[in-house]
Design brief:
This protein is α+β, with helices and mostly antiparallel strands. The protein folds into two domains: 2-61; 68-152, Roll (PH-domain like). The protein is built from four helices and seven strands. The protein has helices spanning 9-34, 36-39, 42-61, 137-152, and strands at 2-3, 68-71, 75-80, 83-88, 92-98, 105-114, 117-122. The protein has a four-stranded antiparallel beta sheet, with no helix packed on it. A hairpin with a 3-residue loop joins strand 2 (68-71) and strand 3 (75-80). The longest helix is centred in the first third of the chain and has 26 residues, at 9-34.
Length: 153
C-alpha cells in the first residue's frame, strides 16, 4: 500500500489558515488598540475583506482535501477526519488534475459515492521539478489505471 497524497495536507488545512486568520486578527486588534482605526477606516475594512477572501479561497481549494489517500493496487483507501472509505478504480468516472494551483489537486469523480460523497479531492505527492507545466505522475498513473480497470469490467 503506497501513499499517493502529500504529507503536507495538515499544514495546508490547519496551520496555514490559523496563521492567515491570526495575522488578520492581530492587525485588526492592533489598529483598534492604537487608535489608527479611528483615523482611517481601512484598518477595519482591509482585514475584514481579506478574511472573507481567505475564507472563500480556503473553502474552495483547501478544506475539501481529504487527509490521506493510499494506493492499494485495484482500489484507493481514503482517510478523512478519522473515517475510511474504499474506492475501487473501476468505480472512478473521471480523474482531473489541477497542477497550476498550490497545493496541486487531483479530483476523482465516482460512479458510486463513498462515505465522503461522489468526489474525492486530494493533494498528490509531488517531487521537485524544474518545469512548472509538467504533468503530475500520480494523476497520469491514475488516469491510465482507471481506464484499464473500466475496460476490464
Amino acid at each position: 500500500m503506497t501513499r499517493i497524497s502529500t504529507n503536507w495536507t495538515f499544514l495546508h488545512k490547519k496551520i496555514f489558515p490559523a496563521i492567515w486568520f491570526g495575522f488578520l486578527a492581530l492587525f485588526l486588534v492592533g489598529g483598534l488598540v492604537s487608535g489608527a482605526a479611528k483615523q482611517s477606516a481601512s484598518f477595519l475594512i482591509v482585514p475584514v475583506v481579506m478574511s472573507v477572501f481567505g475564507y472563500v479561497m480556503m473553502k474552495r481549494m483547501v478544506w475539501d482535501l481529504v487527509d490521506e489517500v493510499y494506493d492499494r493496487g485495484d482500489s484507493l483507501l481514503v482517510e478523512n477526519r478519522g473515517q475510511e472509505a474504499l474506492a475501487s478504480l473501476s468505480s472512478i468516472m473521471n480523474v482531473s488534475a489541477s497542477t497550476y494551483l498550490n497545493p496541486p489537486r487531483i479530483t476523482l469523480r465516482l460512479v458510486r459515492p463513498v462515505a465522503f460523497g461522489d468526489e474525492i479531492t486530494f493533494s498528490p505527492v509531488t517531487g521537485f521539478r524544474l518545469n512548472p507545466f509538467a504533468r503530475n505522475k500520480v494523476a497520469e498513473d491514475l488516469i491510465m489505471r482507471v481506464h484499464q480497470a473500466r475496460d476490464a469490467r
